[in-house]
Amino acid sequence: MIPSALLTLCFFAPRLSLAAIYAAPPTVGAPYHVASAYPAYFLDLSFASVDPELYTDPAYTSLSDTHDIVAFKLDFTAESVDIAYVAAKVGDNATSPSFVAVGLNQPTDYGLTNAFRALWGIGMPVEREVDGSYSTPTLLLLYPLGTFSQDPIDTLLTVDGAAVPYPYTQLGFGFTIPPAHPIPPPVPEPPASPWTVAAIAGITVIRACRGSKKLA
Q1: 31, 108, 104, 71: CA torsion to nearest 10
Q2: Does any domain span residue 73?
Q3: Which of 66, 71, 178, 206 has its CA 20 to 30 A from that of 161?
Q4: What is the H or E stretch that residue 173 is in?
Q5: How big is the chain by its Cα radius of gyration, in Å?
C-alpha cells in the first residue's frame, strides 16, 4: 500500500507525478531589461508561473504520456512596449510548438521557423491588465518522450522575440533570454580557530629563533 504522505506529495507536486513536464520557474529579482536606442523604447520581462491548466486539463496532461514538455510564460511590466512574437528553442533538438489557451494574448501558432525553433505570433495591440502589465499564455515546446534525461530549463532553453513600438512601425527591436548556465558558488574555506592561529604563530616564532641561532 502506498503511504498517504506519498500520495499527498504527488498531488501537491505535479512536476514529480508528471515527470515529462519541465516548467521554467518564475524569475527571482529584477526583470530582464531590454532597450532600443533608436527608437528609444524598452521592455522589462520576467518568467512567470505557468498556468495550472498545464497540470489539470486533460488536453495537456495527456501530452505528457507521449512527450517531454518544456513550458514557460512571460510577464511584461506596464511600461513595456508590445511584443509581436515570441520564439524559443531547447538546444539543438527539433521541436513542435503549442500553448495553453487560457487568459489574454492567445498567440497564433506559426510552427517552426527552422529545424530547432518554435514561433508564436502575438496579436497587436496586446491585451493588458488594469495596471498596464501584460503576459503571454503558457507556451509549450514538445519533444518525444525521453528526449531529456534531466531538466533542460537552466542550460538549454533560449527565448527570444521582437518588440514593436507604437504605432507599430517597422522599427521594432529584438530581445533574447539565454540559458542561465548556473555557476556553482565557490566553497568557502572554514574559518581558522583562535587555537590554530596561535599554533601557527608559535611555529613561525620558533622557526625564526632557530634561524637566528644558526646565523650566530
Answers
A1: -50
A2: yes
A3: 66
A4: strand 173-177
A5: 26
